[in-house]
Amino acid sequence: MSIAKQNQDTDMMASAQESDRLDPLKDYRPRFTLPEGVIYLDGNSLGVLPAGLSDRMSDVIERQWGERLVRGWNDAGWIDLPSQVAGKIAALVGAGANCVTVGDSTSINVFKVLSAALSLRPDRRVILSDRNNFPTDLYVADGLTRLLGQGYELKLATADTMEEAVDETVVAVLLTEVDYRTGERYDMEAMTRHIHGRGALAIWDLCHSAGAFPVHLDAAGADFAIGCGYKYLNGGPGAPAFLYVAERHLNDVAPALSGWMGHDAPFAFTTDYRPADGIGRMKVGTPPILSLSALNIALDAFEGVDMALVRQKSQELCDRFIAEVEHRCPELELVTPRVREQRGSQVSFRHPEGYAIMQALIANGVIGDFRAPDILRFGMTPLYLRHTDIVAAAEILERVLRQKLWDREEYRTRAKVT
Amino acid sequence: MSIAKQNQDTDMMASAQESDRLDPLKDYRPRFTLPEGVIYLDGNSLGVLPAGLSDRMSDVIERQWGERLVRGWNDAGWIDLPSQVAGKIAALVGAGANCVTVGDSTSINVFKVLSAALSLRPDRRVILSDRNNFPTDLYVADGLTRLLGQGYELKLATADTMEEAVDETVVAVLLTEVDYRTGERYDMEAMTRHIHGRGALAIWDLCHSAGAFPVHLDAAGADFAIGCGYKYLNGGPGAPAFLYVAERHLNDVAPALSGWMGHDAPFAFTTDYRPADGIGRMKVGTPPILSLSALNIALDAFEGVDMALVRQKSQELCDRFIAEVEHRCPELELVTPRVREQRGSQVSFRHPEGYAIMQALIANGVIGDFRAPDILRFGMTPLYLRHTDIVAAAEILERVLRQKLWDREEYRTRAKVT
């Protein structure tokens, strides 16, 4: 290594140390359990374990379930747990607490909001989405149109062509605010306004937004939203998802998945379905208390957190990572927008050997992930990442590339889950 | 108390003690955690906590999630957890392991199998069910028909009129094998044969069957089934549900809820949906690892258990409870069939003050539950209940009635969950 480069590297680390010292969020890091020897840049795929969650879950299991047994539904407040969790999430996504509910997977919730949207505009038949949307959104939309037949169809555009694709046939536009591969971000407010101008409904997937930066669903005029509990919200693998319905639609939507928990009086056990008032009608089956409890506990890590500071630090971490990687690894091509407003809380690079590089990087203590066909993806989670982690991660990435540590057969063998 | 009655009571307890001594299932009781001072006759609503589950869940949370983080999907086998759990349940319900999958709530699974059934018989439009079926089955079926329109409808019959109601318009008959209120049981094999004879499909809800007695889905020729993880399977409050598709239909059904986990290659992230081969296509979203892990651990309590012995003891417990209660509490009206083959694993009585009586009973250490309008329900779970528990429970019920312990305002106030 040249002396000039060595000096530059030293400067970069010194700058990161200074940023950590001044970091207004640094006191939140102990709210999370971080394994030794790992720099975790994959909180956008699975959030880390919040500190104390395991003990609190033991209490849920041993005391609430084990001792109270079926009485837990009343005693331990299980029946109100979906509302309790919803309230915490609502605060993070700029929604009235009465507009959010929690339960089921993101995919199921996509189905719920799409079918609810269709029930509001029976005269239109096209669901519009982004070709680069996360596949499950497209698959679920496609499945719904196939189920309905009668001219319903899913049409796809790209970010560039989206605005003009919203025509008078479109009932709802289903967009993920932040692209899961590139990190590119839609302007939710402007796009919602445009969609409304064409007489359609705006459905926002917040999987890569909720907990990552401030979201303002009510203010943006969104009609529906869904999002994931296990990424930036740290609810644990496969945590329950959430769903938002704008207040103006609450009592007009007809739930297609009409289960007993969405009934106006579930314990009357009547034969006829009568939807609950408001957001309650979007609930379906018995709430999954163990996983909901974990999400409920995890969300306490956001207590007192100023999401504007999270956004500020996220952008600094992204900028720093881009600068570090471009300086050290010019063979990686940045695919995330450089302009702060145009991206979420991740940085992605492209490389033809992306899969093997990511496996080698993980083996060397930096966990990001790979998205087909060639994307190395790094998520920034300001509550538990330090500026110095970013520099250290870039150093290791540089070493993986310089020393060709990725060039091994074992790193080319695709795992079941990538 | 008369000396004659006292002697009779002593005899009944002595007989129960002798049955416990000879009980071939007595060694399974330590597989469960039972709170002190409680006789739990509500395992048909929420199963008890299996011993060791809490520690094993701590390992899932701390080691699999906390330390392995996103690597747990491969390392800890999370991605295969639905299949693993499905294999254990398949063995309990007489199904090929490749015909069962696990995930989502029972209500969501009702929607999945109903829509799958409709996809097999596009020429018929009527879903038939039992007016006394558990309401969520009816609500979900109704919601699906409203979503589809085009003449689809839900028709209801009763056990008495069910056979003749299966006419040439019926695409699928959705029945819960055991009535949640009365405990009355359909003859699955005979009814399935009859349904097939009329060209319709048979969907069985096993919420009150799986884990309660031997079920033979394949042998009975069932087309589809669903069931609950949190009752007799002891998977914890709101545990994931399961779903069965007969092998002959596996590759013909079109999933209406077509999420990424049901895709043939979920990690190829392609735009187009292509259903997985076989039962995999019935999966939808990201599997709920924490609650699936709890269910997985809970199912180990069935390892080595002979379900025929479970059925035998269940019937003995039911008979004993009926005899005890009828002897002690003649004002309670039995609503469960006396004939063993015609009932599941519960005993229900009717009383106009049923709600208050059940609250008083619970306050006195016997947990059963109440079902509107007037049913006192008692579930029999042979792996952890003793014959002497049944006698003791009946004694306490007698005391509640004789001393009118139920006649208090607090016991009449309905809780949110009954």
Automatic annotation (TrEMBL), chains A, B:
Query: Where in the sequence is N6-(pyridoxal phosphate)lysine found?
Result: K231
Q: Tell me which EC number(s) this protein carries.
A: 3.7.1.3
- Tell me the segments the record calls region Disordered: 1-20
**What keywords are annotated for this sequence in UniProt?**
Hydrolase, Pyridine nucleotide biosynthesis, Pyridoxal phosphate
Which co-factor is required? Answer: pyridoxal 5'-phosphate
Write out the biased-composition intervals (Polar residues): 1-10
Single GO term (MF): kynureninase activity
UniProt binding sites for pyridoxal 5'-phosphate: T106, S107, F134, P135, T136, D137, T176, D205, H208, Y230, W260, T286
| Catalyzed reaction equations | 3-hydroxy-L-kynurenine + H2O = 3-hydroxyanthranilate + L-alanine + H(+); L-kynurenine + H2O = anthranilate + L-alanine + H(+)
GO CC list: cytoplasm
Record keyword DNA-binding present: no
How it assembles, according to the record, is: Homodimer.
What the record says about family reads: Belongs to the kynureninase family.
Supply the name of the protein.
Kynureninase
Q: What organism is the protein native to?
A: Nitratireductor aquibiodomus
- The gene behind this protein is kynU
